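lol ok so funny story. i was supposed to be doing the assay writeup but got distracted and ended up predicting the structure for this chain instead. priorities right. anyway since i did it might as well share w the group, maybe its usefull for someone
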Amino acid sequence: MPDFELSYTIEQTAQLLGISSQKLRRWDEQGVLTAMRTEGGHRRYPKELVDRLVQASHAGTQGDAQSLELASVKRTLAEKRRIIQLLIESEGRYRDLVETSHDLIWQTDAEGRFTYLNAAAYDIFGLAPADLIGRCFFSFETNGAHVPNRRFLSALRRNGEMQNFVTHLTTARSEDRWIGINARVTRDEGGVVLGIRGTARDVTQQHLAIRRAEHVAMHDTLTDLPNRSALQRQLETSLQSGQVGALLLVDMDHFKRINAVFGHGSGEQLVIGLSGVLRSVARSRNGELYRIGEDRFMLNLPEALREDAQGAAAAVLAAVQNYRLAMDRNRVVSSATASIGIAMYPFHGADWNALLAAVDSATHQAKDEGRNRVAMFNPASDALRATHRRTHWSRLIADALQQDEIALSTQPAVRIRDGAVQHHEIFLRIRDEQGRWTDSAQFMATAESLGFAPALDQRVVARVLAHLHDQGSSWRQPCAVNVSAASIADPDWTRELGELLRASGVLPGRVVFEISERSAMENIDATAAFISQVRSLGARAALDDFGAGFSSFYYLRHFEVDYLKIGSAFTRELDDNPESRAFIRAVTGLARDLKRQVIAKGVETEPALRLLRESGALYAQGRFFRGAEPLQADETRRVAASGG
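and the output, tada:
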């Protein structure tokens, strides 16, 4: 009995060992774990043995737990090693990218002194990164005043970020560099500035290209004098600031005879020579000379009084008369003369158009009085002359509209590569008093001032749409129609245009509406709205004579046109004027970026065409391909060619 007191029942043993009673019975039968028997035949297991088995089982469980914990630690360490390796590799890739980047990557302290620069620093500053630590952009500023860069740092600290800031630096090798900078301020949790990080890029070539394009747009290609656009900008600034002064228009007398007598090109030589002489006169009078036309110069004299202006005009007349131009075979152009008109601003004109009209009127007065003389603007005589001109053209335009005496001519714009026609530009003409067809350049300014322009434009559009409808598929290319500033600014006219397009039965894509750059810049909002309207109808739009004013480069993003048509002034002298070629390259590059097509007008020679092709131009228009021809004659030729 005492033995059984030191034992467990089969149920207790099964529970302690964590196995079933049936398994214990099998172990007993198999001799694995033999049980003792009570008198009643019940199985009992020695307590000491069972307890040892239980302890052994617990020891095994604890070992397993420790093994699992150790395995977990090993896995964690392995993961950390993997992450550290990835970070090392990532940092290596980052450093490779930073150090091999062509852009300068830099960092400064709170005072703007460099604390880090990548290898591109040598190309920007001409020094190795180690030699630049502790220095700053100020150290290389060209003018030495540090004003632009101090403004840059002030704006950066105020806004926290700067994009595309351009500054002018001089490298350690004394080379000029224009640098574009992007930067961002770094701060601590309290908002205190810790430093600045950013990138920089050498934009010298781009900057110089823009400056060259601006110079070409603002200067005459033959003489390199400032042109009409530059004069307009200067005078508008002077008038807005309340400045007084004088404007002189110098118009050469009988200029066309020079080429007739001395041969082609002699007139240009005379203009080049006179430009130097007149520029000297202008500078001696604290003025500036401009060339605004083939044989026309303007002299602007800020702060000049009437006596100053008359004295300058007399000096110009003397300089022109005393100038001698030696030609071939001992021939000399001598006794050249000019007629000069004077207008005082703001007294004779408080804005550009009024002042230009005043000085032009005074010049006509000088010519009417016998040429080779000076005339001050006289409002009374101008009124008579203006009234006569307006009356003359008013009657001719009214008769043309009433009798439908309107002629249309066409000139193709072609693809340079293969001569394929891109579209046909339409030109308007009316008859003069002798019954000759007169180009629209002679009367459209008067038509606009008298309110005839919208009616003329509508008549031309209707005639072109009828032509396209009648020709059907035999006329494949679109027609480009010029639209005046007065028309695009008139909501009723633009509404009627839409109705005319819809009623014509002509696909709108067969019509291109051309707006001159001058008209576009007169009313930017109306132009943008008109372009948007015609394009929404399916028609196309073009900006004509592009490049006459550099400000249009900025506003071009407002005009969603399909074509940019470069004015003839930039194509006539391509063969001997590198600045014109630079301008056309700049425009074609800009057009590609803005997804516009460029058409160069006024192409007359094979060399000009070759240079256009080399400059990247794809389309051209001019007498080299075909001059302007009557639209009806063009129709007849096409019908005959097709056997119709």
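The first helix runs from residue 2 to 5. Residues 633-644 have pLDDT under 50 and may be disordered.
back to the writeup now i swear
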